[in-house]
Amino acid sequence: MAEADMQITLTYHGKPIDLSFTHDATISDLSERVAAELSIPPCNQKFLVGGKLGLQKPPFKEPALPLTALTAKKITLMGSTAAVVSSLNSTISAASAPRRAGPIKAAMPTRTRDYKKMQEEAQYTFHTLRPLPYLPHPARSLAFLERLRDDAGIKAAMRAHQFSVPLLTEMDPAMHTTPESRTLGLNRNQGEVIELRLRTDAFDGYRDYKTIRNTLCHELAHNVWGPHDRNFWELCKKIEREVARDDWKSGGRSVGDQEYYEPGGEEEVHDHGGWTGGEFTLGSARGGEAVVSSAGGGMSRREVLARAAEERVKRTKKAEEETTGDNGGS
């Protein structure tokens, strides 16, 4: 047996992992070692290789690609362990189970709080936020998504147009980048799922907040109009104006200590129009389309909508309880 005399270094969750191989090893051997030693099954593996090779994932286009071609390149491993995926699927299944909800009582108006507005904000919002757990610092991405959801201008526009979006998630930059362009956002099935490119291409920084917010305005317009026609652009610009007008908290606040990306180089496009489809899975691709990447496991269209319905009931119930509590004390 040949001696192990070649070392490959992977970056996983920001930490280097060194693996030794023989000189005749291939990228398929690398995938097998990752599955055996890191418990990440091949179906969950993605290797972002520096240079022209780009994103590689099983089954590889060149399964016999020699590892000697990768020794001098930066390799980032992305993927969730089988245990994480199993845990997430169990959580989703429990959340998707039918639950009995009591009757919703009408909120009693008071002088001090606008309960109609509170109930509308509970209904017209992004009901589930999901960062990508296999990229560095998912908590920062979650904070970014929360800031978008709670943005005063976005909240006002959501109420004005009665937009209710089951899932807002971050986009995997590697899945939507070509040498010619970067896609900034995607809207699935008129607002069932909206993806936003939050990160820089290096995954460790975040893009300008107002640029991402304008992309979100663009994707919200696809809730009504699919093609980029005159109707779409009129609505898109209207939403952008409304968000800017009602953004009373504006002040250039940043999320965390990370630096923000200044656009340049390749052309950046919002998207290629609203896109549709039947059942879909988070973190996979079907029919040649890159589909929403999320926290590890799969989530069907029915499950996304079920989760959103559950979140909507919780928000409405919370608004009712606050109404009842304030009335009882006045």
TrEMBL record:
TM segments? Answer: none
- Which residues are in coiled coils? none
Report biased composition (Basic and acidic residues) as residue ranges.
308-321
WLM domain: which residues? 117-314
Q: Which Pfam families does this one have? A: WLM
Domain Ubiquitin-like residues, every copy: 6-52
Offer an example of a GO molecular function term for this protein: proteasome binding
The record's region (Disordered) falls at 249-282, 308-330
Q: What is the name attached to this protein's record?
A: Zinc metallo protein-like proteinase
Q: Can you name the source organism?
A: Clathrospora elynae
